[in-house]
Amino acid sequence: MTSPENRHVCLAGPKCRNASVVEGKKTPATTEAPDSLCTGCVRSVQRATEYLPRDYVALSQAVGEKARAQGQRVKSSPARQAPLNVAVVAAMQDIAEALDRAAEVVSDGLRCDPPDGHEPTRVSDAAVMVSTNITKLLTTDVVECWEWQNDTHCEPNCHPERCDDTQHLRWVERTGIQFGLRLRKLHQSTASVIGVLEKLLKLSIACAHCADYQPLYQYPDSGTVVCKECGYDWTTETFGLLGKILEQETK
Fold it and tell me: Among the four residues 47, 54, 61, 174, which has the most C-beta atoms within 10 Å?
């Protein structure tokens, strides 16, 4: 039993998996060691890391080769619903980047090289390295690394050539626990993206912007029509007008 003087709380805070509710407020579980996660959060981080390659594959199957081969970080505007392939590719990039950083931390501790190669293979290998050495990751002290952040202005720790109006590459300090909690959060947020994909309605009309036949899909809530291959999208009104034009041209 943990004595009062040795009581420490899980660093996951209100997101603690073993948190208790006292007077309507979540209280993180206690831990034996300071600056650590409870056993429930350690397990959840490990499971999330194991699932991230499956999330990556599920997202990859939802977009075409053009979107996957863009070769640059995808940025989307919060002012409107992003085209389907932009949101999906951005989620894939976040998974790859987070696993790369976590694997680098673990490989430094193991004194070996981190996974390398084509992104899908690297994602899978990094997940295996991190999940099988989760204690090594979560007990790592502060490390420095580059990290993409959404912001509207540059700071002294920004990369001199990689920032734009909405996203900035910054040199930051992170702990192993922060890397682990980010992996868990990514698995949770990816699940919501995949949920949206599963609700899409496939239409019996091809995209007019693609050279070969590519079916169109529609968001059931907003009515927006999208092409998974090229990322072009139409509002319900615009798509209805396009349909009328095509109908007149075929007569």
Answer: 174
Q: Which two tokens stand for residue 45?
A: 């981080």
CA distance 170 to 162: 9
Element (H, E) at 217: strand 215-218
Per the CB < 8 A criterion, the answer to whether 89 and 70 are in contact is yes
Give the separation between CA 30 and CA 197, rounded to whole angstroms.
38
Nearest Cα neighbor of 47 from 242, 191, 227, 230 is 191
Name the amino acid, one letter, at 155: E
Domain ranges of the chain: 39-199, 201-250
Cβ–Cβ < 8 Å for 68, 60: yes
For the question of whether the overall pTM of this predicted structure is more than 0.85, the answer is no
**Residue 76 identity:** S
Between CA 160 and CA 194 the distance in angstroms is 35
Phi and psi angles of residue 144, each rounded to the nearest 5 degrees, phi first: -110, 140
Of the candidates 5, 6, 36, 1, the residue with the CA atom closest to the CA atom of residue 18: 36
